[in-house]
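Let's sit down with a protein and look at its sequence and fold side by side. Which protein we use is up to you, so please pick one and set it down. Label the sequence line and the structure token line clearly, so we can match residues to local backbone shapes. Go ahead whenever you are ready, and we will take it from there:

***
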Amino acid sequence: MKVSSKNNSEYQLLKKLCEIQAPSGQEATVKEFLLDYIHKEKRSWAAEPEIIEGDEFQDCLILKFGNPRTAIFAHMDTVGFTVRYFNQLISIGSPDAEARTKLVGKDSKGEIECELEYDQENHALYKFGRPIDRGTSLTYKIDFRDTTDFIQSPYLDNRLGIFNALQVAKTLKDGVIVFSCWEEHGGGSVGYLAEYIYTKWKVRQALISDITWVTDGVEHGKGVVISLRDRNIPRRNFVEKIISIAHKNEIPFQLEVEGSGSSDGGELQRGNLPFDWCFVGAPEYGAHTPHEKVHKKDIDSMIALYRVAMKNL
């Protein structure tokens, strides 16, 4: 299968996704954007999905296409900071930013653009012209850079995973897409989402549409990553099926072996349902920093593999 590059206009959707402020616990803004986008676009897709949402799903969202066998899980939240007392900040997830990084948010007094600082004991603080309401969420100011070969922006993890799922939705006839919450800060939604799709449609296979790392063994531009393991270990028989699909369709890919890191797949493995799962995602440089960077060839191969895998699993 030939993997073709996108023109820059197609990444405007990714840019819009990155610009939405939604750290863990505030995913409702992403859900609202997705519902608006899906209602506008679904008539042009190969199949119109059933849209499943409501109070019993909190801020999560499920799209059901045809007769599903496999689910795509993509988390909606990002890392960030919560304002504590005085000018103190507490991490949401594991942000990794240098001093003077621009942070943005909004409280009862208006819009906020402040700077991140650290004290001598490396505690995170904000620098701003007034006190910020306690409990306010602050996230990285977006600087979206679209060059010939790369996309660079805060929060490609995991707005790129969402972007991938939406690209797959255009051609998907049978499958489930699950947009989950809280992944960056311990999870908590995947258990009840998995139970719903397993009970309702007997779906027990999952691809984790998320972003991994560029490391000494995983490079930019060499293809989507199929993860053999991270902190969790998926069932090898299922992973081998995905590798076989990639080979058969001549989609560039890389194999990852790590001993740390986790994803929505970890929640599936720790749950009490017989789910097979595999993390399949583009590698990025600068994870959880304001400078996350992904090669466009890896985005292309990620979308291509998901499209054929959802047909063949």
User: Anything to note?
Assistant: The radius of gyration is 19 Å.
